[in-house]
Amino acid sequence: MLIGLLPWALILGVQGGQKSMSWLEMLMMTGMNFAGGSEFAAVNLWVHPLPVLLIATVTFMINSRHILMGAALAPYLKHTPLKKVIPALFFMCDESWAMGLAEAQKRKAAGLGFNLPHYMGVCATLYIAWIVFAAFGAAVGPLFGDVAAWGFGMAFPAVFLVLMRGMWKSFAAARPWFVSLIAAALTYLSVDGAWYVPAGTLSGLFAAYYWGAEP
């Protein structure tokens, strides 16, 4: 997981450094908004003067998927004290959510509860690695050219493919994924902005509800 994550964090930092972001600004942004997709969107919109409202709106739209991710974890966290749940959800990202949910499902099948130490260990590892390498990338960013040409961009999709493979059950169960993918792709190609995020999310939800209601 880290092999795919670290180059992507470096790319984020380098792109931020080339937009005149300092390593401290990058460290604070990634530390307070632990969500890679919205961070890349913020960096792409990073100009002077800063379009604060636009960045905040796009960040909210992209991070809206965390609402669904938190809802998926809710049944496993219902017996956990709120003072532990809030930090657990703050450090939740796509990778830690997928790994934590897979672990929770295995433990539930064995009659066990949610393994919070395991989940927080995953979160801490990913969090520290992400913010440190992103800050390092911002510090050395001005020294590099177009890092996108290096091909490291495939690292992030590769990580998600690995996560999806670990959660794969059957083609029938994955139909909402494909509906979400197609809707998001079509919206991305036809509508400017980050509208492909809610489009993919809502279409996937409707597809899951429709097929989930079948006998």
Automatic annotation (TrEMBL):
Keywords: Cell membrane, Membrane, Transmembrane, Transmembrane helix, Transport. InterPro entries: Brnchd-chn_aa_trnsp_permease. It is found in: Cell membrane. It comes from the Bacteria. The keyword Transmembrane helix applies. Pfam families: AzlC. One of its GO terms (biological process) is L-valine transmembrane transport. It is a multi-pass membrane protein. Coiled coil: none annotated. One of its GO terms (cellular component) is plasma membrane. Its main location: membrane. Belongs to the AzlC family. This is Branched-chain amino acid ABC transporter permease. It comes from Neisseria chenwenguii.
